[in-house]
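User:
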Amino acid sequence: MAGRWKDLPGEVLAWRRDIVDCLCDFDTDVVVFCHFIVINVVVGAAMGADALITFRPANGSVTRISTDGGRLSVIELGTEADSRVN
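Assistant: Predicted structure:
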């Protein structure tokens, strides 16, 4: 998990792009429930980060993201967990 998105195979990058595109397509407020790596896809894309892990969300934390229809922005990061990821 210490890697970078640019080093991963095309199908993984397409999966990441699909997640970001899906969120950018919403034109109303939505609630999305997801897990650690998907939250990192979204936060990393919003921050322009290439690291796989840019944020360590705590279980049940709430991260708020906005979109202008083409780009994601972080409004508020949820509580971070004090855990180790291998």
